[in-house]
Amino acid sequence: MTHILILYSTLGSGHVSAAKALTQAFSQFPDVTVQSEDALNYASTVYRSAVVQIYEQLSEKVPQLYKAFYEGSDVDDLERSLDNNLTWARLERPFFRKLGQLVKTVNPDVVVCVQQIPSRLLQLLDQEDALSIPQYVVVTDTIAHSTWINYGVKGYYLPNALSANFLIQRGIDPALLHVTGIPVKLEIMQPKSQAEVRARHGLPIEAPVITVFGGGLNPRRVRYMVSNLLEHLEAGMVVVAAGRNEDLEDAISDLTASKTTQLLKLGTIDYVDDLIVASDLIITKAGGLITSEILARGTPMVIVDPIPGQEEQNADVIAAAGAGVQLRLLEMVTPAVQYLLQHPERLTEMRQAALEIGQPRASLNIAEHVLSNWQTHRTD
Description:
Blueprint (H helix, E strand, L loop, with lengths): L1 E7 L4 H14 L5 E7 L6 H17 L1 H10 L5 H15 L4 H10 L3 E4 L2 H13 L6 E4 L14 E6 L2 H9 L7 E3 L14 H7 L8 E5 L5 H14 L3 E6 L4 H6 L9 E6 L5 H7 L2 E4 L3 H10 L3 E4 L5 H12 L2 E4 L5 H10 L1 H14 L4 H18 L1
Helix pairs in contact: 1-16, 2-3, 4-6, 8-11, 9-14, 12-15
């Protein structure tokens, strides 16, 4: 029996989604058990509260300051990167005493990290607690920041060749780099027809469906976009998926359908993949996981308000591939949507481009490679 421990941190929902996808993928293999844990649950209350608040305040309230920190902490030199991350781990280690105990108790054969904090802490656990467990890192950003690089990592699983080239330029051994895509839920591997999912959820069969994934966006800006779409679109339906964003639900509560365009307002749903398949076009920010799910289904995107730093890089890669357009001015959202709906050949090109870079099998590819690599490591 092979025991897998997946470690993540709840700084953004993408790491959680990636951990869930990998848990599902490893569970498909016989004689494999898998356990997924949030490393922040094993941190002191003071640290956990501080780091979550700092991340949320910087990324949402002061994005330019977050961008300056993100870009300023990205180090090109390999030795400096490794030393910087080890220094951060030493500073954080006193707040994570319970994490070492968790790893000892679980006693896994392999640890898979999908966020930087647990990955860098494992370096010290290996030294201090006499642990010798192979660690694999799954990068959930389109471009790998230097904070992902740590001593003792047996393999890095990357979203694309561009990210691999960046790490090679920084001095990482190419043999450790594996381009698999960002792990997405296995459901995305299952064929679905647009007509089928539209009928299942009461969406118009023939008219255009434009979905706004607004959970991570500013509610006032979403309201502006949606009201403009309702006013100017000639036909179709606008779906607003608010997720757990109650402020967004309040902000659009008084919006109603126009004479030409229907409006569907959703909170938390369990059929995100169906909604992606049902949509002709999706308006979203550029989180690594949600955009990976959309790309894997081949649905064109309009990207707005990416968080400065990693989400801007995600947006650049998608736009450069032709799978989406990135807009800075909200006033351009409705004209862009109108143009794309009036030029179906452009939407077809974007769908093809998305499918070319989407990786619906990423989770299984990572699980297969980790298990194979561990077997080789064990017999060496």
